[in-house]
Amino acid sequence: MFPPRRASSWLAGLLAWLVAASAPADTPRLATLDWTLAETLVALDAPPRAVAQVEAYHDWVGEPALPETTVDLGLRSQPNLELLASLAPERILISPMFANLTPRLERIAPVETLPLYSPGRDTWAEMLELTLSLGELVGRPGTATRLIKETEARIDSLRERLNGDEPPLVMVQFMDSRHVRVFGDNGLFQAVIGRLGLENGWTGPTNAWGFSLVGIEALAGLDARLVVVEPYPAGVREALAEGGLWHHLAEASRGEPLVLPPVWSFGALPSAERFAELLVTALEAPDAV
């Protein structure tokens, strides 16, 4: 029987071999801690070999799904560096959020930082730049250009399905039963509804990521339709079902509150198209809940 350390190294080596054997031969060996970069790479048909918190990615991002062979690197803020090193990536991709990890990651492979949601930048334009940058990085510039054109064409076609008389929308995601992220300027959801010709009912301040954390009482009096983006934290759905302020807000909503499956609110083009699809489909169903 192998000693623990030797067994761990053997398993890591076997895992690295299996991942390499199952990966497309014409794509670089990439690892990323960032889900936005991961979803975009999947959409470019150049999925990363390793991603942090794979299960949570599927909970919060939903689609596009990561390949089953994707190696889970552990926590985004504290990745398993031994495992990462065993995979011998050619490059490690991060967003500025994980810049503090750069010195340790650079000991394993070159690190590339790709920004999104930069203060003062147009969100949609920056998403396009990110897509093109990743396309160049993986040697698929044509695929990146096609992804942009197809995403914009799809959102344009979804806009044509709307009546044009939809009420303003207030888009939220629950943090607990009393607090939500409410989405507005600078964020992905705002960029999408703007392209769909819809109005945001939240005009309050937002941070660089396009949301503000507020108590649900801040939503009272807004003349808009509520849109809830899943997932709900544990116990929240049950707490809301017991009644209280949320019931009053739902009754005051201009139409039944819409509940959408998870969409990565800090994502790029794949999340933008997913949100547009889910939102327009929900708006077309008069009894959607």
UniProtKB/TrEMBL annotation:
Assigned keywords, A-Z: Ion transport, Iron, Iron transport, Signal, Transport
One of the GO biological process terms: iron coordination entity transport
InterPro entries: ABC_transptr_periplasmic_BD (IPR002491), Bact_iron-sidero_bind (IPR051313)
Pfam families referenced in this protein's UniProt entry, alphabetically: Peripla_BP_2 (PF01497)
SUPFAM superfamilies listed in its UniProt record: Helical backbone' metal receptor
UniProt keyword annotation of Transport present: yes
Chief place of localization: other
Domain Fe/B12 periplasmic-binding residues, every copy: 29-287
Signal sequence region: 1-25
Ion transport recorded as keyword: yes
A GO cellular-component term linked to this record: outer membrane-bounded periplasmic space
CDD domains associated with the record: FhuD
Gene3D superfamilies the UniProt entry points to: Nitrogenase molybdenum iron protein domain (3.40.50.1980)
PANTHER family: IRON III DICITRATE-BINDING PERIPLASMIC PROTEIN, IRON(3+)-HYDROXAMATE-BINDING PROTEIN FHUD
Family from the record: Belongs to the bacterial solute-binding protein 8 family.
Name assigned to this protein: ABC-type Fe3+-hydroxamate transport system, periplasmic component
Organism: Halomonas beimenensis
